[in-house]
Amino acid sequence: RCLQKVFTLVLAVEKFKKMTNATFKDSDLLGFNHMIEEAITRISYDHSTRSNSSYRFWKSESRKVRDYEDKCLVLSPSSKLIALFLQTTEQEVTLDIRHYRTFSGDYQPVVLGIRGKNMFLSCTRPHANPELQVEEWNNNLNDISSATKQLRFVFFKKVSDMGSTFEFESANHRGWYISTSKKNRQTVEMEVKEKNRITVFTVSM
């Protein structure tokens, strides 16, 4: 709409120049030029604003999440998530799944925290491939912009058609998913879906 106004304004200026009999200098158009520049700047700003997604906190739920083979998630002393089979669930972590609202996409943006701790899962790329980290974070995560470094905490929860299973794709590095090894007692890592790892999770009953 703004671009259409600029085009209309330019046509009006050209028509006015042709219709007037007086000498019409370029300096007389400074006001028009200023209006055109402002409109173009506004277009660029609006486009930039729309290109950055924003996520606003909506609600949270606490769940014990397991991979599709029923391996539990345990937090190691070195703050790494380990997937393993447990006979008792005392060590199993409970995830604080924070849901966010967004104005774009048909996915469910979530932030995954460790319940009872100021620790959150994040996806960063310190080396060649994205890596899953468990970070201590004491600042506010109610509003997250894709233009900030806090995007590393956001994952897209992709629920299956049946609704009983889901995957977590990194919002910071699209195409990379939280995954577990098919072997027991291995770290939870980021991986692309084509690799021989488990990316499907369920909620523990």
Task: Describe it.
Its main location: cytoplasm. Keywords: Cytokine, Cytoplasm, Inflammatory response, Lysosome, Mitogen, Pyrogen, Secreted. Belongs to the IL-1 family. Helix content is 20%, strand content 36%. With 205 residues, the chain is of the alpha+beta class. It has 2 domains: 1-49; 55-203, Trefoil (Acidic Fibroblast Growth Factor, subunit A), CATH 2.80.10.
- Gap between N and C termini: 52 Å
User: What would CATH call the architecture of the largest domain?
Assistant: Trefoil
What oligomeric state do these chains adopt? single chain
What are the secondary-structure elements, in order, as H or E? HHEEEEEEEEEEEEEEE
The helix tally amounts to 2
CATH topology of the largest domain: Trefoil (Acidic Fibroblast Growth Factor, subunit A)
Helix content: 10-25%
Taking the sheet with the most strands, its summary is:
8 strands, antiparallel
Structural class: alpha+beta
How many beta-strand runs? 15
Average pLDDT over all residues: 83
CATH domain class of the largest domain: Mainly Beta
Rounded Rg: 26 Å
Strand content: 35-45%
Low-confidence stretches: 39-51
Number of domains: 2
The outline comes out as globular
Organism: Callorhinchus milii (Ghost shark)
Subcellular location: Cytoplasm, Cytosol; Lysosome; Secreted, Extracellular exosome
Family: Belongs to the IL-1 family.
GO molecular function, one term: cytokine activity
